Structure formats: structure tokens, C-alpha cells
Amino acid sequence: MKYEIGMHIVYDVLNKGVLVEFRGKSHYLAGPFKTQKEAIGAGEELCRKLGWGKSDGA
């Protein structure tokens, strides 16, 4: 699914966490995540919980 404008998910290589920017707010998931793919997946799941992918009025 395409990211929203301003939505960013960045893997923190040093600490094995992920920084998520979504709808003007920053979130940090500390992990540790085993892989970048796992971290990005966790960031995307957070965005889904916050409304990403849901149509207006849902």
C-alpha cells in the first residue's frame, strides 16, 4: 500500500528500533527488531492502527 504524504518509517540501525512519522506526530518503537524488514513491518502496523489505509468515515 502506498504511504501517505509525510509518512516516513526509518530503521535505526544502531539501536535496532524504528522511527515513525505519521500525520504530523513522531513515534519511536524501541524493539529490538532482528531485521530492518521486521522493523518496517512494525512501523507500518502502527500506522494501520492509527488509521492508515482506512477510508474517511470508516
Topology, pairings included?
Layout: E1 8-12, E2 17-22, E3 25-29, H1 36-49
Antiparallel strand pairs: 1-2, 2-3
Note down, in words, how this protein is organized:
This protein is of the alpha+beta class. It has one domain (8-50). It contains one helix and three strands; from the N terminus they run βββα. The chain has a three-stranded antiparallel sheet with strand order 1-2-3, with helices on one face. It starts with 7 loop residues before the first strand and ends in a 9-residue tail after the last helix. 14% of the residues are buried.
Which features characterize this protein?
58 residues; alpha+beta; globular
Task: State the separation between the terminal residues, measured CA to CA.
Answer: 18 Å
Mean pLDDT: 93
Helix content: 10-25%
What is the domain total for the residues?
1
Beta-strand proportion: 25-35%
The largest sheet has its strands arranged as: 1-2-3
Structural class: alpha+beta
Q: How many runs of DSSP E, i.e. beta strands?
A: 3
Q: Give start-end ranges of low-pLDDT stretches.
A: none
Helix-strand pattern, N to C? EEEH
Largest sheet: 3 strands, antiparallel
Enumerate how many helices there are, as a single number: 1
